[in-house]
Design a protein that fits this description.
Rossmann fold; 15 strands
């Protein structure tokens, strides 16, 4: 493709400029695989990058978009050849390396995984980094021995990308899921995904006790800060929390009490530099354990021109589920 469309973010004296322009492959960064990108998605991190409301972009000008899928058009990497369908998520793409909000990408082939045959390109980005992160969280709880019969699983940020896919996955696996959200109008949506009940996120905003009444066998948290601290204080003995986000903040105002008095385990989920074998395992689990009807119900599709608007909305907490960008 001699000329292709891309969303480019540039630094200005007063902030950032976001524009959709035409580029050529000469404008791309170094890499050993070139991809004709068919789809990307808007994740919370993308919202911060495009709006400039978080220090996500480390190099300007930059094409944001932390994930993408498409077909290889050129490759000198041993694992990929022209015509292969591939998926990328993380590895600093959309942060320090041109990302998925463009019709062409050039990347390091080590960052790629083959597109699982169970998914279309659109489905892969309906899952995207958020859904893949949700799967890593579920796998972490399983590996910590958290089973459906142990009790309720709390999902914070439930209407967001990670939260909504987590609910769909956990409910299919037989867990009783409690969804925490600040948007009570989404209760029907969350219950349709598989939540047994919905509670207001305000329950986790108050002062943090070293130990509160134990309730949760496990939790998936994408919020961080005071919310995560309160959740930890309420986890049952030998329970576990998978933490993957910081929508509320990077701080964690907790104590050692949950860990040394109840044996609670806090598992950090790093979806950015996950080794390839673990990534492939997660995508295989998604193919087996994600209800595609629910995935389609929580997904909307937009054009490249819509990304700045969606970025504002996702940072403001107004986006539910997943948003695919059709390139």
């Amino acid at each position: 493709m001699d000329n292709f469309r891309a969303l480019l973010v540039s630094k200005t004296d007063t902030g950032q400029k976001v524009e959709i322009i035409k580029l050529t492959e000469a404008d791309l960064m170094e890499g050993n695989v070139t991809i004709a990108v068919s789809h990307s998605s808007v994740n919370y991190k993308d919202g911060l990058a495009v709006t400039g409301k978080g220090p996500i972009i480390r190099k300007f000008p930059l094409i944001p978009g932390v994930d993408l899928t498409g077909v290889v058009t050129a490759s000198s990497h041993q694992d990929y050849k022209v015509g292969d369908s591939v998926v990328l998520g993380g590895w600093g793409v959309g942060e320090g390396h041109h990302g998925g909000f463009a019709q062409v990408a050039r990347v390091n082939g080590d960052w790629l995984v083959p597109l699982n045959k169970a998914f279309s390109a659109h489905d892969a980005m309906a899952i995207g980094v958020a859904g893949y992160t949700a799967m890593l969280c579920v796998m972490a709880l399983e590996e910590q021995g958290v089973k459906p019969e142990h009790g309720e699983i709390l999902v914070t940020g439930a209407a967001g990308g990670v939260g909504s896919v987590s609910i769909a996955l956990l409910s299919k696996l037989g867990y009783k899921v409690v969804a925490s959200t600040g948007r009570p109008e989404e209760e029907d949506f969350l219950k349709a995904l598989g939540a047994a009940s919905v509670i207001n996120r305000a329950e986790f905003n108050g002062p943090v006790k070293p130990l509160a009444k134990a309730r949760w066998a496990g939790a998936i948290d994408s919020v961080g800060s005071t919310t995560l601290a309160n959740v930890l204080s309420q986890v049952l003995p030998e329970g576990a929390v998978a933490a993957c986000g910081l929508a509320q903040g990077m701080d964690l105002p907790t104590s050692v009490a949950p860990f040394i008095l109840r044996g609670v385990r806090l598992i950090g989920i790093n979806s950015v530099t996950t080794p390839k074998a673990r990534r492939i395992q997660a995508w295989e689990r998604l193919a087996r354990d994600l209800d595609m009807t629910k995935l389609h119900a929580l997904t909307t599709t937009v054009k490249l021109e819509d990304v700045p608007r969606v970025a504002e909305e996702i940072v403001a907490g107004k986006v539910r589920g997943r948003v695919v960008v059709a390139l």
